[in-house]
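Need CCR4-NOT transcription complex subunit 10's 3D structure for a figure. Predict it.
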Amino acid sequence: VGHNRAVAHYYASGTKSSASMEEFGRELLEASSQLHVNLSNPDSLDDIDQCVPFFNHAMTLFHSHQYRRALAVLDRLFQFIEPMDEAVAKKMCFLHIELCLCLKQPEKALGIVAYLENLLFGSKSAAPAESSSATPQKSPDKELSPPKGASDVDRGLLQLYKTRCLIMMRSVKASKREIKGLVSSPVGGSNQTVFLRSQLEFLRGNYRKAVKVLCTAQVDRDARTTAMYHNNVGCVHFCTGKPHLGSYNFEKALRLFVESDVLDGRVYFELLYNLGLQNLYCGKYASAFDRLVEAVRMQPANARLWLRIAECCVNRHKSDNSTDFQLKDRKRYMVRGTAGAGPHRKIVLAPSIGTDRYVPVGSDHSAAMPVPTLEFAALCLRNVLQLLPPERPAEPDDVEPALPPPPAATADDAAVRNSALALASYVALCLGDPRVALGYAEELLAQPRISGVHSFLAHQYAAEALLLLDRIGDATDHLNPDQIKDLSYGFPETDDSPAGSSKGKEETSSKTIAPPSEENGKTYRKPWYPATPSMAKVVSLYNLAVAYTLRGGLGKATETLRLVSVPKGPDPEIPVQALMLAIYVQLQQGHADLAKNIIKQHLPQYK
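Structure prediction for CCR4-NOT transcription complex subunit 10:
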């Protein structure tokens, strides 16, 4: 009676707010204690009569976003599904599927879909072979005829779930077959079907077609559907290199979702993440930081989210290094001015041409405070490395998926780890901690799978750290330009890598292959310098010249700098620091005339 009264009170409240759900959970716990049922321990379930209270408890956990606890309860309930009332069993299976999708476990969800199809329609369809080991599968003892409670709506709902699972697994061919059947089903004209069709085109890289399909959705019915429409359009803009348009759509989606007053905080925080990521690519680093930090409340174990927060902090410090390669604009800052006149005229050089000096925060400011500083970035990157598994576990249930991107595949984990190690090494160098920077760089070089761009960065950061530690000989080993083969973002082997991204999510910065677009070749990845292997070799040669200079080998430094200045043209893409070093080396060797010639060549006004 107490249990039924708790259910009646919840429905009588007429609201689906979190407060009413919490009140229902408290009343449910009180009623269950009178029945000597321990809802906090799913293993204590040993009687079929206890299944309904445990199911309602799982429902409260689901609405409070405690998905893993809810899944543990349902896994235990699944063992009692044979003698269970069919209506309860059906509801339990649908909740089980939804939980698996929330936790990015599509293989397990497919197994439950196959069981429910067999239960409702007597279907002999089975889950894919790859899902058999991860699914608590059961099969009815005998083939059943479709019960009275089964309907076309249930069949359509199962088709929707199956399609969602296949798209989450990035199985394009299977998803296409399932969607063909879905279009002719009773739910073929629903907005869910339209969104899934659009998501399939998005997965295939057909961005224009994805938008055309989205435009067929009836988005004027409710605010939540309109919010999802703008979210999906924002994802398309993100992948076609239009971050500002995407930011506009995400802001609109977030505003409409808040106005809809729907009890689903998970979607709110995912929209918040998408908006934060888009602002990061727009260069709105402060706004992106605030959005992403707020999203941590929902996803504290999200490794990729912590990485994005660290990127906001680093970009606030220095957004890119393209200015260092703009020789025509930067070289005028090499000379501060002149003194004297005639034969006594002197050229006064600038003491430094760098613009990215970092001033550490004071000791009265805690690094754990969420402010966009490099100290907080270092903390975020430590979180990333702690949250990522050292290797792919045997059971995916034991690891919190790196939400929001779907499945926690080995390649995704490796790409996130490599990005975090490279960024952590850079941050440590900026904070004046070369030993820590060297450790991160060496750990990155020791990774079994590493992209060309991360290998280049690891060698450069390791060399700089060794120079600061006065280990110049070891530093020169990392600066061999011949070891720079490519600057690709993908791993050397890319045959097994996925070619797309799930709708509403983003790609890792080191993704193997960006989803190709049939309409255009644009990408959402920001320009990065050095952009080509030849430019990277120039940077490595410059750093090698610095190492020779510090060791006293001015002759070797001069020869190396001549290789740096090989590129010809009105505006060669070489770092402006190389000119300053060339002037310094000539002055140290007593060649003042050669130093003046370098200045006059690049700054004619000082002839």
